Amino acid sequence: MTWLIKIPANINKKRTGFTLVELMVVVVVVAILAAAAMPIYKFAVNRAYASEGMAAVGGIRAAELVWKAEYGSYLAGSTTGDVTYDTVSKPLFDWLGVDVDNNSWWTTGNATFTVDTGAGTITATGTGGKIADITLVLDMANGTWTKTWPA
User: Fold this and answer.
1) Per-residue pLDDT tens listing for the chain (151 residues)
2) What is the C-alpha to C-alpha distance for residues 5 and 123, in angstroms, rounded to an integer?
3) Is-contact 125 115, C-beta < 8 A?
4) Using H for helix, E for strand and C for coil, what is the string for the chain?
């Protein structure tokens, strides 16, 4: 008997590997997931840097409150302006246990700290590095925070 259809010899072999279309679908799905995750990641990173800044400002607040309790006025004096927390207040921070050596907010040129004794606020503004454009304001009286960072 003669068959009309010729059956290929390799019909029973199993297919191995992926087709180009399957690989392209995977690449597109991964790209979509990465694009959706980037804003969330950026927000989490900025929030982490803000937390580090809050620790730095909290240290200033603690030092200022201790100084005021001891001497009757804030270390910053009674004027508004930038206060440099360096060799004058470092022993006070060491005494309070505030780590100023391992915090990017304390790195020279990365941030400015302004103590406004009239308004009772401490403002930290990131000026360089990874903390640029992050602003933190602490109300010294009630301990409330106002935080802003780039989108």
Assistant:
1) 566 676 666 666 677 788 899 999 999 999 999 999 998 998 888 888 888 888 777 777 777 777 778 877 776 543 334 445 554 455 556 666 666 566 666 665 677 777 777 788 888 888 777 788 888 888 888 888 888 877 6
2) 85
3) no
4) CCCCCCCCCCCCCCCCCCCHHHHHHHHHHHHHHHHHHHHHHHHHHHHHHHHHHHHHHHHHHHHHHHHHHHHCCCCCCCCCEECCCCCCCHHHHHHHCCCCCCCCCCCCCCEEEEEECCCCEEEEEECCHHHCCCEEEEECCCCCEEEECCC
Cβ burial, residue 59 (10 Å; 0-12/13-18/19+):
buried
Q: What is the pTM of this model?
A: 0.59
At 147, list the tokens: 């935080």
Q: Could you tell me the residue ranges of all domains in the chain?
A: 20-148
Compute the distance between CA of residue 86 and CA of residue 72 in angstroms, rounded to an integer. Answer: 21
Phi, psi for 10 (deg, rounded to 5): -100, 20
